[in-house]
Amino acid sequence: MRRRIAPSAVVWLFIGAAYFLIPLVATLLFSLRDIQTGKCCSSAAYSFIIHDPQFWHTIRLSFILALETIVLSLVLLVPTVYWVHLKLPRLRPVIGFMALIPFVVPPIVLVVGLLNLYKGSPTWFYDEPYGFLVAAYVIIAFPYMFFSLDAGYRAIDVHTLTEASQSLGASWWTTIVRVILPNIRVAALGGSFLTLAIVMGEFTIASLAQFNTFPIYIELVNESQAYAPSALALISFGITWAAMLALLFIGRGRQRSSAVAVGS
Description:
Blueprint: H1 7-31, H2 44-50, H3 53-86, H4 92-99, H5 101-104, H6 107-117, H7 123-126, H8 132-154, H9 158-167, H10 172-183, H11 185-201, H12 204-208, H13 214-224, H14 228-263
Helix pairs in contact: 1-14, 2-14, 3-8, 3-11, 3-13, 8-11, 9-10, 11-14, 13-14
């Protein structure tokens, strides 16, 4: 017997869809206006963005920074949170409190402190975005990644999985990579999605550190063009969602491969 959908649910569904879609449609219509006449419809704004070398340079830089931040955050937090849940459960509230600090400290205060802290560091770290910005972005992404992984670890029986793995002769590294990590894949992907969105849209730290990332490019275009910023907003929105979907499909593909391997 098919369940009937309540009319109120349909109404709220349409309201929610309109809340998200109407601004996107309005932005699309505005971006299609002609630069000379101001009338619809023209692709001049999109042509300007696509043929601008700075667009490709900055979007590539921000995406690489996001990937580096995701990898470094996972490398640091996956074994740390695992060890806390396994051996040091009393430290979980302490780390949870520390994870709230990036929410309390304003980004402008954080970047000034980091600039002073790393002033004497090597040039390849202090003067390059792949060093300084990644270190700063790991701090900003810390609460999102920690709370996602913490929820994933609380959803599984860490002690039983660890004892079963070690009883079969697995090392600590094998236990984390081949036993624990596949069971928290959804949580790791959730933290990765949030980190990707944060890095792709972070403006304050990159601006004060004088690195030309994608948000800086958006601000420069917004100051000099009329309709191109709307086109750029839609393009960045699509690229971010495409990257998130790619990460999601990669995670599902690995999960299916693991299920096939276990079944065989």
